[in-house]
Amino acid sequence: MGKNDELLNKYINGDDLSEETIEKLENNKYFMEKVIDITNDPKMYYYCSDRIKKDPGFIRFLMKKFISNLDFLCEVTDFYLKNSKNNSDYIEIVLLIRAILKSRNDDRYEKYNIMRNTFYSALRLVVEKAKEEKNDDYKYQYDMGLGFWYIFDTYSNNELVINFYAKKMLEEIFDDGYYALDRILHSKYSSLEELENKGVYSVLINVVSIYDNMLAAYVSIHKNLLKKAIDKYYKVLKRWDKYVDVEESKKYDIISTKVEEYMSDKFYDSILFERELYALIGKQLGIEDKLIQYQIIDNVDIDILKEEEQNYYATINSSLIDRINYNNVKSIIKSTLFPNQQLQEETIKKAKVLSLDDYRKSQKKEKLDKSRKI
């Protein structure tokens, strides 16, 4: 038997040891871990020095050793948290005790869950405040993202903590309402076939990169973090057509409401009624069937249009108020159904076309200004 084993047995058996020796042993983390490991007695924790009780490695050891003794674990965790700084070990201990309590359906997990969520909320508050202070710096905004670069840099030696923040950021990205992911994917992919051909990981990592480029890079290596997002992705696939119908229905409701509000005070000034404008514009845009489907007009309106279309155009050409109404109603419909197209058209109208001569003149002026400064 070695000297250390002999000392261990003497301590456990309560044999005579000097007070100085006992104090040294109870301040030795590895010795006290062996004592607890051999005796399987959580009460030995109370003989440990405060220095050991504040050691995160020791708390991890106790959590593994006495994983079913929840009262004891909450006690040792609270002592550690009360007497330790908020760093990566601190966050990790909170994450571990929360996970243990939750897995055993213990209501006390909520206390640590609040602490856990506070860590994330505090980070996001700092990040958004920093972005707000540099609101006009696009590159800074892009590089900052959700703040994952800061997390990776600060907690690079603690994968559990990094993964916690990564998961919370992914929740923020993918849990923003029932149709959040649907909206993103429908805006980026024109068909279900196009989406499926890209591959689930490629699609989701691309979505993450919209919000935080470094998080996307991290997730591309740690794909297991996308488990919940993958479930949402496949739900999007299943309701692809349903989403199209739901969004389309919303758009036509918006059109109906906006046009009704617009025309409500134009009724006495115009010759053409609301339904007549709908029928005329609907034919131009190829949406007559949709207007009928959503009960904005009916087949009778279309039949009348066939007979009166030339008269409608004549009215629009001769009556200023009807021409204004026609243009405005058409604009409401187009901006609601085709917002991207409308934006492009407006951008083109506002854009200044720079000819080669203009470019050369601007270059000459720039050189002249520089020479004057010299």
Structure notes:
- The protein is an all-alpha fold.
- It has helices at 3-13, 19-25, 29-39, 50-53, 56-65, 70-82, 88-103, 109-133, 138-144, 148-154, 159-174, 180-188, 192-198, 200-211, 213-221, 227-238, 240-263, 274-285, 288-293, 299-318, 320-337, 339-350, 356-373.
- It has three domains: 3-125; 145-238, no CATH class; 242-350.
- It has 23 helices and no strands.
**Gyration radius from CA atoms, angstroms:** 34 Å
Count of discrete domains: 3
Number of strands: 0
Q: Percent helix among the residues?
A: over 70%
Classify the beta-strand content into a percent band: under 5%
Q: Which overall shape is indicated by the principal axes computed on the Cα atoms?
A: rod-shaped
Run of helices and strands:
HHHHHHHHHHHHHHHHHHHHHHH
Unreliable stretches (pLDDT < 50, length at least 5) are: 342-360
What is the overall number of helices? Answer: 23
Query: Whole-number average pLDDT?
Result: 87
- What is the CA-CA span between the terminal residues? 88 Å
The largest β sheet comes out as: none
Structural class by sheet pairing and helices: mainly alpha
Key descriptive features of the protein:
374 residues, 23 helices, rod-shaped
Produce a short descriptive summary.
With 374 residues, this protein is mainly alpha-helical.
Topology (elements, then pairings):
Layout: H1 3-13, H2 19-25, H3 29-39, H4 50-53, H5 56-65, H6 70-82, H7 88-103, H8 109-133, H9 138-144, H10 148-154, H11 159-174, H12 180-188, H13 192-198, H14 200-211, H15 213-221, H16 227-238, H17 240-263, H18 274-285, H19 288-293, H20 299-318, H21 320-337, H22 339-350, H23 356-373
